[in-house]
Design brief:
This protein is of the alpha/beta class. 42% of the residues lie in helices and 20% in strands. The protein is built from 13 helices and nine strands. The strands form three sheets. Strands 3, 4, 5, 8 and 9 form a five-stranded antiparallel sheet that branches. Helix 3 links the parallel strand 1 and strand 2. Helix 8 crosses helix 11 and helix 9 packs across helix 11. The protein starts with 6 loop residues before the first helix and ends in a 13-residue tail after the last strand.
């Protein structure tokens, strides 16, 4: 692409465009130069996560042949994002909402015109077959559980700022007794019945599972939380080695698992609406769409 620029004003404008992503190699069109500035790397999370499958799909859909997606933990991804953000350097990460990073950093999703990441999703609660018969009170509470992104955000941010997970969860419960009462309305207490909940190591699911753990314990349950990756989570629900999970992102993120284990789990309800996944960059980066990554 050829551009004509005149005078010092145009030169200054170009310099600003280069500085915006912190790399002197960047051109103002934000395409090939973005790839060079991040070594054609998208910083991802654990390889079993549905968002990683969607990212692989986006690589194919948009013809990003030079690009790689690194794997690691969610914590490693946010640490890399913080380092780049603090230095105003370019970075592209896999992201999802709700997540505390959107409250801490000025970020944006890259537009996804091909729909590789789908649209808005839901977080749903799933349980093993037979849960309603074996643990009817817990089944009712888990079916009733529903909260907002703002509710979850309070717990996530508190944990991120150094509060212990159970303390952050208990503080939220204490401040939202009316919502908790809706989840437990008409449910009888039990006496030490055991229940095992599985969840993925996303900040959102850490928040939700610590809250529901304390609620179930207040109702007399002996609760075990088990942190696993997405594949083992769905397998555990399907084979009955875990009783339930609040961490089913559907219809896109966990579509593969929902299809694989169709008929081997029960959907208990939607616990959050309007969640989203995609590729995320700092606002200071001069790029707006996944299409712009293709040379």
């Amino acid at each position: 692409m050829t551009k004509k620029m005149f005078g010092l004003g145009a030169a200054a404008l170009l310099a600003l465009g280069l500085a915006a992503c912190g790399n002197d190699d960047k051109s103002s069109d934000g395409s090939a130069s973005v790839g060079k500035s991040v070594d054609y790397k998208i910083t991802g999370i654990d390889p079993g996560a549905g968002i990683m499958e969607a990212t692989d799909r986006a690589i194919k859909d948009y013809g990003l042949d030079k690009w790689d997606v690194t794997t690691g933990s969610g914590a490693a991804m946010t640490a890399a994002l913080k380092r780049a953000y603090d230095a105003e350097k370019p970075i592209i990460v896999t992201g999802w909402t709700p997540h505390w990073k959107f409250a801490k950093f000025d970020l944006k999703y890259l537009e996804d015109p091909k729909g590789s990441f789908g649209g808005e999703e839901q977080i749903r609660t799933i349980g093993r077959l037979g849960l309603a018969d074996d643990l009817p009170e817990a089944h009712q509470i888990l079916s009733n559980f529903n909260w907002s992104e703002e509710d979850m955000g309070e717990v996530m941010v508190a944990i991120q700022e150094g509060e212990k997970e159970e303390v952050a969860a208990q503080n939220w419960i204490d401040a939202n007794a009316d919502k908790v009462a809706q989840w437990t309305e008409g449910v009888n207490k039990v006496n030490g019945d055991a229940i095992k909940l599985a969840y993925v190591a996303w900040d959102s699911e850490i928040a939700s599972h610590n809250v529901i753990k304390l609620v179930l314990e207040q109702m007399g349950y002996n609760v075990t939380l088990t942190q696993v990756e997405a594949g083992p989570l769905w397998t555990a629900i399907a084979d009955g080695s875990a009783d339930a999970s609040l961490a089913a992102w559907l219809p896109v993120t966990h579509e593969t698992y929902a299809t694989k284990f169709d008929g081997k789990f029960e959907e208990l309800g939607i616990n959050m609406e309007g969640v989203k996944i995609g590729l995320v960059v700092p606002q200071y980066m001069d790029i707006n769409s996944i299409e712009d990554l293709k040379e």
